[in-house]
TrEMBL record, chains A, B:
Name of the protein this chain belongs to: TetR family transcriptional regulator
Stored Pfam families: TetR_C_11, TetR_N
Cross-referenced PANTHER family: HTH-TYPE TRANSCRIPTIONAL REGULATOR RUTR (PTHR30055), TETR-FAMILY TRANSCRIPTIONAL REGULATOR (PTHR30055:SF149)
Keyword NADP: no
MF GO annotations: DNA-binding transcription factor activity; transcription cis-regulatory region binding
Entry keyword set: DNA-binding, Transcription, Transcription regulation
SUPFAM superfamilies attached to this UniProt entry: Homeodomain-like (SSF46689), Tetracyclin repressor-like, C-terminal domain (SSF48498)
Superkingdom of source: Bacteria
């Protein structure tokens, strides 16, 4: 696909991604058509298909952009500092859970979307968590044979995905910070 | 609502609940109509409405029944034993994650469903986890001031909800058992 990204400014692209994800969060991935995306983002359907090729490619790229997996990893010198920096970046992303719920549902029926979401968003996100923890092991902060190492991504992601389901609202930055100290670090043997 | 449950045998009820949840897992809560439920479960729509009053009431009761929140709590004498007993009961519930994904998506748009799911399924489930942990605190197994106590439900639920999203399949009983030892008990200060 010979993309011509240069035609869209970074600002326009952000706007287009945000509009796409808002539609997915509101109506569910399955129910959103490229016509609706075109209308909501004031684009032409031809442009959307030329640029992204398919709805799944557009949504995955939008999620990648919003997910921030392209940001530099924090390196504060302590695992606690790195985890805090990672969740602080999540502040203001109010629709995280909406989109996640919509995507979780959609990937169950759509193998192409599922593979793209896993390969381009979930795996890179898990790699970032593992990388930060691997550095803590290198520093001797976490034991190399700590049994929690293989589960750290599950424990890290849990409050981000589950808080809305359990409490009816996004987790506050304060909740996430307390969770890091009360559950995530202890799961790695740090108290 | 004057129910006449006696008309349906326990077996027939199980079958009806299973058929309803299968539809929800396959098509999403929003997309399932009472007509479809009636057809799939070989019931009349009039019977369904007389018995449950609404789609949300039917689905919530089906989830309650399948979720097993009415089962006796295990009391093995150790927290590890109780947790193991709780996840072992999950074996064979292959569609857990499908339904959960469908329900997570649906509750975001439907306040009535959201309240029913939280009040009748999620809260009782969290209470069960907390009850098992409270007993461990009474026994002196877990410190009463352990900071992980308030987050134990998140850490417990994480692999059940997230495994399918992250790995594309339900967690195996063996994975859940290793998670209990590697992440859940350590988050409560037990190693």
């Amino acid at each position: 696909m010979g993309r011509s990204m240069s035609r869209l400014t970074a600002e326009r692209l952000q706007e287009l991604y945000a509009g796409t994800l808002q539609l997915v969060a509101d109506h569910g991935y399955d129910n959103v058509t490229m016509d609706q995306v075109a209308e909501a983002t004031r684009s032409s359907k031809a442009t959307l298909y030329r640029q992204w090729g398919s709805k799944s490619a557009l949504v995955v790229e939008a999620l990648q952009c919003v997910g921030g997996t392209d940001l530099d990893l924090p390196d504060t010198g302590s695992l606690r500092g790195d985890f805090l920096a990672m969740v602080d970046r999540k502040e203001g992303q109010e629709h995280d859970a909406d989109m996640l719920a919509a995507i979780m549902h959609a990937v169950r029926d759509d193998k192409e979307l599922a593979e793209a979401v896993r390969g381009k968003i979930l795996e890179p996100g898990r790699d970032r968590i593992r990388e930060v923890v691997a550095r803590a092991v290198e520093r001797g902060e976490v034991a190399a044979d700590c049994p929690g190492l293989v589960f750290v991504d599950y424990v890290f992601i849990a409050p981000i995905v589950l808080h809305h389901l359990l409490e009816g609202e996004e987790p506050s930055p304060d909740f996430l910070r307390r969770y890091i100290d009360g559950a995530l670090l202890p799961a790695l043997g740090l108290h």
